[in-house]
Amino acid sequence: MKKQQNILIIGAGLCGSLLALRLGQRGFNVNLYEMRPDLRKVEISAGRSINLALSDRGLKAMRLAGVEDKVKELCIPMNGRLLHDMEGNTVLAPYSGREHEFINSISRGDLNALLLDEAEKHQNVNIYFNKKCKSVDFENTTALFEDYETKENFVEDADIIIATDGAGSALRKSYFLGKKILFSFSQDWLTHGYKELSILPAKNGGYQTYKNALHIWGRDSFMLIALPNLDGSFTVTLFLSFDEGEYNFGNLTTPEKVLEFFEKYFKDALELMPNLVDDFFTNPTSPLGTVKCSPWHYKGNTLLMGDAAHAIVPFYGQGMNASFEDVVVFDKALDEGEPNSEAGWEAIFKAYENSRKMDTDAIADLAIDNFHEMKGHVNNAIFREKRNLEMAFEKNFPDDYSSKYSLVTFNEDIGYREAMLRGRAQDKAILNMLADKELDSNADLKTNLEKVNRATEEILEDDRVAKNFKH
Amino acid sequence: MKKQQNILIIGAGLCGSLLALRLGQRGFNVNLYEMRPDLRKVEISAGRSINLALSDRGLKAMRLAGVEDKVKELCIPMNGRLLHDMEGNTVLAPYSGREHEFINSISRGDLNALLLDEAEKHQNVNIYFNKKCKSVDFENTTALFEDYETKENFVEDADIIIATDGAGSALRKSYFLGKKILFSFSQDWLTHGYKELSILPAKNGGYQTYKNALHIWGRDSFMLIALPNLDGSFTVTLFLSFDEGEYNFGNLTTPEKVLEFFEKYFKDALELMPNLVDDFFTNPTSPLGTVKCSPWHYKGNTLLMGDAAHAIVPFYGQGMNASFEDVVVFDKALDEGEPNSEAGWEAIFKAYENSRKMDTDAIADLAIDNFHEMKGHVNNAIFREKRNLEMAFEKNFPDDYSSKYSLVTFNEDIGYREAMLRGRAQDKAILNMLADKELDSNADLKTNLEKVNRATEEILEDDRVAKNFKH
C-alpha cells in the first residue's frame, strides 16, 4: 500500500520541522505546511520567546536526526541559576553537582531554520509557507487551508495528517468542536502573564552580565529572568500577575510606573536596560497556559504532536525538549509498528499515545511547580539547604543520586513521569528530614545520602500501596 | 439601588429550583427560565438518572430552605452497599458504623417538582418553561433565549444572571467562546458510559430485593448498581466500557449478546429483570464526564452554579448534594456581602468562588476515585479489612473517627477538600499498616485507633511540609 506513505504535517515550528526531517529520513513523502512566512527569509515578529533552554532530551532528538553537532554550535551553556537579590547581590546555584550537566540557551529562530534546511535536503520533503490550516476533516483525512498570499482556500488530501501546529492547533479544535469523539480537553491559565524585554550587548560586543547562567530575579509573587544570546544580548522575560498585587500588568500603564517598579525590585537589571520603556510598551503581554487533551489521534488518520497535544508553561525549560522527545518516542513506535496500512498506523498512534501521554502530563505539572520554585523558593533557606545537599550528593556520589531537576533535565532515558514521582518523593524526604532536624549537615555525607534514599523508597512504597486502591 | 434586585436564573433543575426558592425567600425578584416543559405536567424522557442519593450536605440545604421535612417524606434510607458476587451471594457493607448515618434514595423528578412548587409560592418568583438559553452576553448582562413553542428568539435583560443550566451550560459556553477572559476549562471523559435499566415492583407492589441498600454488582472492569424507588421498583444502572473488554457497549448489539452478558455476570439481577432487553435497547447509552472551570463569574454580572460550574461523575453520590451545597455557601456569601450594587455583587461572587472552588474540585476527584472503589475494591480482601476496621472505630468511638466516606457524606460542616485530605491520609495510613502487618486485628481496638490517628497526622504533616514548596 504505497498510497499510505503520503504524510501531511501542519505547522513548521520546532516540532514540525524535526518531524518532517525525521520522516523524510525514513523515506516518507512529506508535505509540510506553515502559516507563517519562511523565517529564514523574513524577520518574524516577537510574542514568542526568542531563546529557549535546550537540554538532554532535546539533544537526544537532535542526535536521532543526525544534527546534534550542528545544533551544539548554536548553544550557550548555562551552568546554573544566577540569583539576583533586591540589593543586586548574586549567587550561582548550579543545576547539577555533576560538571558535565548543564542546559543551553539557543535561539528559537536559528534552531528552526537549521531544522528546515536539513529537512529540505530531502527530495521527498516539501515545505509550503503562508498556508494557514483552518480545520481538519479527520474522518476523510483532509485539511482545509487558507493561502495567505492568494487569500484562497484549498483542501489537501493525505494518507496521514500530523498536526504540530502548536497550542492553538486547528486539528485539536476540529476534534473538540466535531463532537464525533469523546474528546477530553483542558486549558488552564495562570494568573500571571509574561512580557519579553532585553539587555543589549555591551559596546564591545560582549555580555553586560555573566554569560553562562540563567539569571533570575525572584520576588515571590513575580520574577524576571534572562537568557544569553550569541550576539551578546540577553532575552529578558518578566512574569507578573495580570491584576493582583501592588504592581501588575494591569496598572503598569506609564513609563514612570514601569521605571518605579524596576527601580524598586530589579535595580541591577534596570541599569543594563536603558531600552526598558521602549521594550515594555512595544512588546505584547501574553498569557501562560497549559493544554492537555486525549485522544491525540483519530483512528489511523490523524495525530496531534508537540504543543498541539500538550502545551505547557515555560518554567521547567522543557516545552521544546518535550516536543522534540515526542519525535523520538514516535520514531520508536514507527520502528515497532507497521506503517503501511490504516490499521498499522492506528496501532502506531495508539502505542505512541499510550507510552507518551503520562509523561507529557507529568512535565506539564512539574512546569507549574517550578514556577513557584523559581519566583520564591530559590530564596528560601530550607530550600537552599536542600539544593546544597543535593549538589553535594551529585558531586560526590554521581552514580547514586540525581535531584528532581537532574532527573527531568539530564536523564533523557527515563520518562518525565518516573522523574516526577521519584523527584517529588526525594524532595518530600529531604524537606521533612530537614524540618525535623533529622539530617545533620555535619554528619558524613554518605550517611545522609543513605538516609535520604531510604526515606525516598519508603515514601514511594507507601504511595504505591495507597494508590493501588485508587486506580 | 433597587434595580439591582432583578435576578435571572437559567435552568430550573435541582440547583436552579432551590436557588430560586432561596432567593425568593430573601426577597429578590427572580425570573427562572427552563428549556424543558414543566416536569410537573409532562412526563420527562429518560437519559438522566431517575433517582439519586441525597445525603447530609443536601439535607442541610433543604433545611436552609425550610423544606427538609417535606423532602424526607420522599426519601428511602439506604444503610449500606449490598454487594452481589458472581454466584448471587450478598453481603451488606454499611456506609457508617454510626447507625444514624445513612444516605437516601430519592426521585429526581419528585424532588424537583417539590422545589418548583415551593419556589412558586413566592409572588416574586416567576418560572417560565420551554425557553432555551442559547447564549449570554455577560458584558451587558442579557441572555438570548429561544421559545420552543413559538420558535422565536428573544433577549432578557437582568441585573444579575445566574446560570444553573447544567453540564452543557450556555453561559459557560459563552465564557469559553467569548475569549474576553482567560477562561480555564476542562472536560474529562471516562472510557466507560452508562445505561439505565430497571427492576420492576413485585406483583404485590413490594420490593423484589432488599429495599434499604444501594445494590452493587462490582466486576472490576464494569459494574451494575440499583437504587430503590418509592413505588417498589429499582432504577438499575450499568457502567461499562464503550469499546474495551470482552463485553462493551460497542459490541452488545443483539438481545442474545446482552442476555449472555447478564447471564454470565449478573445472574441474580437478571432473574429480576425480565424487561432487560427492552430497557437495554430503548434507553440511551450516555457518557460520564467531569467539567471544571474558572472563573465562575464575570464581574458582578453573571455567575455559574451547580453542574454548570462543576459537573462530576456520579460515583460518590454527591453531584446533587454538591449543587445544593453551592446554594448554602452562596447564601452565606450573600449574608456577608452587600447585594445592592455591581461592586457588591462582584465581591459576593468572588468570595463565593474563592471559598467554594477548592471543594468542588475535591469532590470531582473523589468521585473518580470512588468509581474504582465501587467496581473493584469493594471485593478486595485488604480493602474490606480496612472498611471493617473503620466501621468498628465509628461504632465504638463515634466521636473519634470518621472514614473518608463519612467525612464526605455525613459531615456537612466540613468542606469536601478537608474531607478529601484527611480521608485520603487515613486510607493511606490504614492500607499501609495492614500491608505491613502493623495493625493487629486481635489487638485492643482503641490501640489500633490511636495508631491510625497518629499515622494519619504524620502523613498530613509530611504532605504539608512538602507542599509548602510547591504552592
TrEMBL record, chains A, B:
<keyword id="KW-0662">Pyridine nucleotide biosynthesis</keyword>
<dbReference type="Pfam" id="PF01494">
    <property type="entry name" value="FAD_binding_3"/>
</dbReference>
<dbReference type="InterPro" id="IPR002938">
    <property type="entry name" value="FAD-bd"/>
</dbReference>
<comment type="function">
    <text>Catalyzes the hydroxylation of L-kynurenine (L-Kyn) to form 3-hydroxy-L-kynurenine (L-3OHKyn). Required for synthesis of quinolinic acid.</text>
</comment>
<keyword id="KW-0521">NADP</keyword>
<keyword id="KW-0274">FAD</keyword>
<dbReference type="GO" id="GO:0006569">
    <property type="term" value="P:L-tryptophan catabolic process"/>
</dbReference>
<dbReference type="InterPro" id="IPR036188">
    <property type="entry name" value="FAD/NAD-bd_sf"/>
</dbReference>
<feature type="domain" description="FAD-binding">
    <location>
        <begin position="6"/>
        <end position="358"/>
    </location>
</feature>
<comment type="similarity">
    <text>Belongs to the aromatic-ring hydroxylase family. KMO subfamily.</text>
</comment>
<dbReference type="InterPro" id="IPR027545">
    <property type="entry name" value="Kynurenine_monooxygenase"/>
</dbReference>
<protein>
    <recommendedName>
        <fullName>Kynurenine 3-monooxygenase</fullName>
        <ecNumber>1.14.13.9</ecNumber>
    </recommendedName>
</protein>
<dbReference type="GO" id="GO:0009435">
    <property type="term" value="P:NAD+ biosynthetic process"/>
</dbReference>
<keyword id="KW-0560">Oxidoreductase</keyword>
<dbReference type="GO" id="GO:0070189">
    <property type="term" value="P:kynurenine metabolic process"/>
</dbReference>
<dbReference type="GO" id="GO:0043420">
    <property type="term" value="P:anthranilate metabolic process"/>
</dbReference>
<keyword id="KW-0503">Monooxygenase</keyword>
<dbReference type="GO" id="GO:0071949">
    <property type="term" value="F:FAD binding"/>
</dbReference>
<dbReference type="GO" id="GO:0004502">
    <property type="term" value="F:kynurenine 3-monooxygenase activity"/>
</dbReference>
<keyword id="KW-0285">Flavoprotein</keyword>
<comment type="pathway">
    <text>Cofactor biosynthesis; NAD(+) biosynthesis; quinolinate from L-kynurenine: step 1/3.</text>
</comment>
<dbReference type="GO" id="GO:0019805">
    <property type="term" value="P:quinolinate biosynthetic process"/>
</dbReference>
